[in-house]
């Protein structure tokens, strides 16, 4: 599968964020709702209130709440139940579907493209994460081991499906429509409009910033009313795949989708599945190690200098105390009786030396793969959040 070519100046300094725009109100509401549900342990089937109640809670109008609800429904995290006011109506929390989330993640990967070597590296990385987690939980409860297995199944399924697509004779879609599964978009008028917008150009053109048109032009082209069209636009914006701007000659412009929206949906799935937060954080840590190790192998002198500049800015900010308390971890075998020595979670000294030696992947993993002791209460009955 051919990869999308991106401009060489995509990397920016630490001082300048990768994308400066602020979330639109509807996207912000949807994000806050999902983040709140994750923190609360995903209260499945709970009612979050009517559109009027949600509008009052977030200080926005009902139209914006409707757009936020559409985003949540497309992502599969909540759905609006119409009817008389009561405990069975309003925005209801859904159990996040494993297959649906896998499709979102796979669509993101297919949009940007992947090669056989990259797929092999991803499979090896997941396997190393699995081994690292097995070392952590070897002496813990079976329930914890089961949760680890459930958490990693998502990545196994996505990689397996992509490998099957690459090894078969079927053609992989070459347009942005792969970002959303058809069955997800066909459930509503806004979803259908979203699919039509995604078919306006190739994935490479989409990632480079293709002007799709003004709201008036696109509504006329699709035969859509403004309400449904704006809901479709918010769905795209929630994935970071488009942005709108006012003024002559502007309008709806495509953008390369952001990984953050997909990552948050994965977090929603893990929370909905009752995976303990400590396990989720350990998976995140190990995956982060693998990603940085792979990046270190490909680093050029120019990239290393850019990273060094960004990390110097980070170091100065940390020295000024602008970023709060750093994380602490306990490392296995470094203490007697207490279960480990507390060490500062400061990656700066090790990151500035990357890449080093003949095998930067191995160099980095050797520094950061020291197992972190899981919380002692993971093995206690009743310590794992119920769904």
Features:
387 residues; mainly alpha; Arc Repressor Mutant, subunit A; 3-stranded antiparallel beta sheet; two-stranded antiparallel ribbon; 16 helices; 7% strand; disordered N terminus
Question: What does this 3D model show about the protein?
Answer:
This is HTH gntR-type domain-containing protein. Residues 329-387 are annotated as: Disordered. Keywords: DNA-binding, Transcription, Transcription regulation. The chain is mainly alpha-helical and 387 residues long. The chain has a domain at 25-95 and 175-260: Winged helix-like DNA-binding domain superfamily/Winged helix DNA-binding domain (Arc Repressor Mutant, subunit A). The chain contains 16 helices and 7 strands. The strands form 3 sheets. A 3-stranded antiparallel sheet has the order 3-5-4. A two-stranded antiparallel sheet has the order 1-2. It has a two-stranded antiparallel sheet with strand order 6-7. Helix 1 (25-39) crosses helix 3 (62-75), helix 1 crosses helix 11 and helix 1 packs parallel to helix 12 (259-272). The longest helix has 26 residues, at 142-167.
Task: Describe the structure concisely.
This protein is mainly alpha-helical. It has a domain at 25-95 and 175-260: Winged helix-like DNA-binding domain superfamily/Winged helix DNA-binding domain (Arc Repressor Mutant, subunit A, Orthogonal Bundle). It contains 16 helices and seven strands.
- Strand-and-helix sequence, N→C? HHHEEHHHHHHEHHEEHHHEEHH
CATH H-level superfamily title of the domain at 25-95 and 175-260: Winged helix-like DNA-binding domain superfamily/Winged helix DNA-binding domain
**Range of strand content:** 5-15%
Average pLDDT metric: 77
